[in-house]
Design brief:
single chain; alpha+beta; eight-stranded antiparallel beta sheet; four-stranded parallel beta sheet
Length: about 550
Amino acid sequence: RTFVSVRFHMSRLPAIHQQLHRHWAEVVRPSITGTLLKPSLFHDRPATVLFANTDDEDTTSCVSHVPTPLLEEDTTLKFLSVAMPYYAQRFPFLAAGFRRSSDPESASVLLTRPFRSVPRVRTKEEETSTDGATYPPVEYNLQPWQLVNHFPASLVLGHKGRLAQHLRMCGSLTEGVLPLTHVLPDPSQTAECILSQSDANCQYIFKPSSGSCGRGIQLISRDSVAATIASSCDNTTGKGAVLQQYIEPMLIANRKFDLRLYVLVPSISPLRVYLHSHGLVRFAACDYETDLEENSRYRHLTNYSVSRRFALDPNSPIKQLNHGDGQGRKWDLSDLTDYLDETHGRQYRTQMTQTIEDQICRTVLSVRNHLQRRATATAARQCYELYGFDVMIDKDGKPWLLEVNVLPSMQFTSLLDWTIKRNVTTDMLDMLCIRKPEESPRHSCTKPLSVLQDFEDEFNSRNGFNLIYPRPITPSFSSSHDNATPLHRQFAAISNTNGDQIDTSLDDLLHDWHKLKHVENKDYSHLTQDTVDALLRS
């Protein structure tokens, strides 16, 4: 019952689930004797909970210091899971000695649905906001020492129409991030206007703004654009849609593919963005063709919820490459890295990776001001978020952002799925530096020394995550971009022009600090106020 709620006999579970049931009962559960703490890099700061992968024989391998003894027997940490049934998300909590709680006020971490504002007051009604999404009712009060897994109004990233509008408002700073996208319904977006912006051979893809799992997606030709625009409201039940120029994709073994990348934002002020080294490469079920005839969804859509319904050819060339899950449906991101290194060279792959990282940072920065306005400075520090960025590479090797998922699926159907998603969740929780209840919350102070100490403890526990913002050198995928000025200052200048005053002092501090570490290559684990004062003076 602790492992997963199952309403039918275990023999009917998929083989991977049965295997994990046995692994939990025979290996993991007997080894759990309590909660380990890892010390901070700084002697005056409290220890935090250690989350380690259960595959590691030595649980100290992912930290710089030996964990301290277990918590006292009468201290049991808890988590609340309101909307996250996925076991890959609950497993790291259980393996670290947490217990699932039904009381929101006793849980250290709250796993919830996205909400419009930081929950402080109990509300009964659902809220409909201007970002086109309906937020469920908030039924709990967030305590000062608790963490919650969403930023206020974060659905602005997951809503395709609103995301496209925010990227468009940033002008040249986000040029080339998203394919040419038209937000519907819009009286100014006539068929003639849309068709005039593309060549005669262009095809389009129609997506509901709030859709997921491939639902409602249609591939349409130029001849069908007018009819699609006319019926856009009916097709999306009034929630809007986007019409996007179709990308001619890069192919592997004549299969279309896209990338699911896991991006962690532990703080928006100062902004920090991490990208996990493991992700999913998802393949379409059929060989690629440009037609829109029968089975075209299986040729053009890479969503696993779509491709799993199609029986794969056992002799398919994609299976002969012997990567990923062995079924030809998914690879690990490292498999794609090896493939591109072999077929195109390391420099080609490195440039592509840098472009993707830059696009992710610009996308998050385009909506950061919107997220900050929804929360007080104190409450926002109790939030974090794991996003699923979907990226596609075109035939010329240029990456394009397709959409962002604020609730990336953690469901697993293979050992590859399970390993990647469990590791992502475990590494994320370890980075959050969760403390014992009633202790001062993380990021509770905005003093420069505390901000930098929070960052150093977080950075020291990053495991499989790589910091992509801030970073000392900001490569850009466009020659029109300014590489000398930090990105947060460039985006703040646009917000200030629109009348929103953005305070970037903490971002400046963190950016300069990380750049100084990179240049001098020194160990700053004994960070002091004198060091910070010297940095501020410089």
